[in-house]
Amino acid sequence: xxxxxxxxxYFKNALLLILILLAAVSLFQGVRNAIHDSQDFQWDAMKxxxxxxxxxxxxxNMNPSGILEQYGYDKYYLQMEANQFPSLLMILLVFAPLQPxxxxxxxxxxxxxxxxxxxxxxxxxxxxxxxxxxxxxLSLLMIAGTPYRNQLGVGQHTLFAFCFFLIALYFSxxxxxxxxxxxxxxxxxxxxxxxxxxxxxLYFIYKKRYKEIIVSVLMHGVLTVVxxxxxxxxxxxxxxxxxxxSSKLAAEGGLDISALFSGSxxxxxxxxxxxxxxxxxAFRMNPKYxxxxxxxxxxxxxxxxxxRTYDFFVMITVYAMFLELEALSENxxxxxxxxxxxxxxxxxxxxxxxxxxxxxxxxxxxxxxxxVGILYYILTIVVSIIVxxxxxxxxxxxxx
Length: 400
Known about the structure:
globular
């Protein structure tokens, strides 16, 4: 019955129309929220940095210099939280000549552009095998969801960073003319949201793109030295002080391990162990399962360290795994049975819809986060088991 319904053109058109309306409302509300509340943009930290005043000390001491009031900080922004490394703040220096409200409007427009590029690049890369109708539904679902709306509304940087990660991915693996220079620069920029993109960069280790990774990291190393000179502080402080600011938020995430363990040292130990396991897997993965490995990295990246639920819009990318598993299944090369793939796909959509909508309905109450968190962790563990099974020594038998 479900299969017949999915083939009915009236049902398909109605579903498309509903998602278009939901996405339009979400987009409108997201932009509206961003006009009034973009406190995560970090214009404030960048502006202080441009005046050679240490933004990390300002964050810790509640803005003692008073310089921000000259630029309307008290009117347009909340308390500064400079949790970005100096090399990352330098990327935002292009906004230094702008007043805070003007910069905010420019950032809104750029985030909309990043959204369009993310959709375009996903269709060119990880989701290239998806039919246009289904891809349209998935993209609209992302925009309609609460994570994307809140991401846009608070002026976060995940759209920015994830867009440049996909640019790096495209010019590394999918473009007819691969360009190591563009890949390196895109990787350098994508680290702006390092809590998301650093785990994802393990994919480039899996693909043996060592030179691009090393150079992109060295660029940040050089700029860290420059930042230390600019702020008249030590290089070590340029690393530790941003982390100290970030650590204050460790227990305030949504579904991540740090929130689960209330920011205790156990969370950091688990994060290290998981990252080590993912790092080792990058050298052992079967090359046929590259999108499955990427999906595993995406799922873990959202919970291995502090994340608010506004970052979870990238969950739509996990669908790439099913495209790969189904293609391998058709050639009898997949370790999963067709039923196993279908059951996992249904569970994935239940989990994603719960993250996108259920949390918002219940105002991210503790009980709703526990329920959705259980679904998310089960999905992540199951995908991790699949990745473990298809490693370099992966077995070929089917699993349900």
